[in-house]
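Our preliminary data section would be incomplete without showing what the modeling component actually yields. Below, a chain of 580 amino acids is followed by its predicted structure, encoded as tokens that our downstream tools consume directly.
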Amino acid sequence: MLRGALAAVPLLLSVLAERPTAGVPAALGAMLAGINDRPGSRRASVARLGLPALAGSAGLLCGSVVAETVGDGRSLVVVPLVFGLLGLGAGAISSTGPVASACGTQVLVAVVIGAGMPLPEPGTVRALLFLAGAGWLLLLRLVLPSPGGRRSGPYALDGEREAVAAVYEAVAGLLLAAGSPGARAGRTALSATLDQAQDALSGPRLRRRAGSAAERRLHARYAAALPLAEAATALAWAGVTLPVRFSEGPRRLAAAVRSGVPCGPLPAPAGTDAGLRALDDALLRAAAVFDRPARVPPGERPGRPGTSVLRRAWSSAGLEYGLRVAVSCAASTVLAQWLHHEHWYWLPATTVFLVKPDLGPLASRVVCRAVGTVAGAAVFGVLGVLSSGPSALVATVALCGALLPVATRHFALQTGVVTVLVLSLVLLGGEPAASWARVVESLLACGTVLLTGHLPLPGRRGHGVRAALDTAVGAAHRYLGHVLDAPEDKALGGALRRDAYRSLAKARTAIDLSAAELPPVSRHSAGSEGVAGALEQLIDTTTACAVELGHRAAGLPAAHAEVLAAHLSELDRARAVPVG
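Predicted structure:
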């Protein structure tokens, strides 16, 4: 919230210099960067905030060129065609991940604003100001300490430290939940924390290897958590309730990561079976890593396998979403141009935000957008009655920037805050606010997106769910093949296990999102939950087999082989039923 409030500093400086219009692009860049600002490591924030800012700057420049080419951006043919083509490409790229989604959204929003918002600054200057505003927020993210102050080691690694500590906490939680109905939720939570820690530690840096001793220790402690996670998953799969003291070791390791003090003696379980022996061995190895930090060698960055962004963008799933974005952008632009509204850009800019798939089900986000816009316009009207002038508008922008981190928890609340912020910037840019006209245009955008989102298009729908399931199935088979063929290669096995669980989590997210849509959309993912359930059982069983093979020389027990074969058959039967 402090960063969000300080993001208004460039706007304040431009108002003090009597150039308020120059502060508008900078404030827009800071606002969009603030929407992307999430808890996590500083290193990860470089890509999460920086890449969308570069995309938005390029989009603002492109929009300015469009406006200069066609004359104030008014054309019923050229502008919708350009926006539609950009929407196709940006939408396809957006389907490949959260950072790519932010990039696609910012480039489209910036193109629309660059083409439609009448600002006196040239396009190049606008783009640089936009980049400066986003860069200022990124600088604040990198420089300001996180809440709670400095703990152990350099504060620059506090996000990474917390992510690694959360892995050990999740291991303890899964051990506590073993043998209970909460075991599945515990395993899902463990997989999520492993993904977050992997992302936090694999962010951009100048060198491939970890440079400082503190960073090398953190990488080693993350690596030491992987065998613990594997053992905990195998014990949860066995379904045996474990004593509470078994979770004490991982909890002490989590506390040691946060505080930097030695972990001390760890309670070790009795090694009566493969799962408990694996847990015992993993605790011993983790204790050795924690007690000898100075001997940790420079570590490689934890990576994750995956296909190229362009290949995923031009897949069936990427093209399906890209086509939806293209139709939505072109249709809303035609409608805005046809209405002959002087400030037509609000409608397509609203449409771009609404068409994002990672903001929840389509019908839900349309309703939230409508409610948030009406509420935001009403609040702005009240603020306009109470106070006026550039100083009050700058204060409103600063307040909205501070509220953005809280508002992002719900799309309606975020929409309300963004509406007040953007209306303030519109006034500072020299345009009339026309709050209720913005409400009408937002409602038109809601109707446009709702229509195009359910409009029948060529080919089958639901490519996103099917593609996510196919990716997860392929990752699971690679993991199983490695466990059966080369169980002694723990490093590759761990990487394949992470890929399998990460792919499964993405597939479940796609399924849940599709299932929450209205029937014309949700029916295209019918049957996918059965595939995901069978896949989850197969991956958990494979993990249990990996632990068993790692602690016995006689090969895979017959009972494990039978369960594995049963899950493979169940997965084949589930996949035989067409999804949708």
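The chain is about 75% helix and 0% strand. Residues 294-306 have pLDDT under 50 and may be disordered. Preliminary results of this kind motivate Aim 1 of the renewal.
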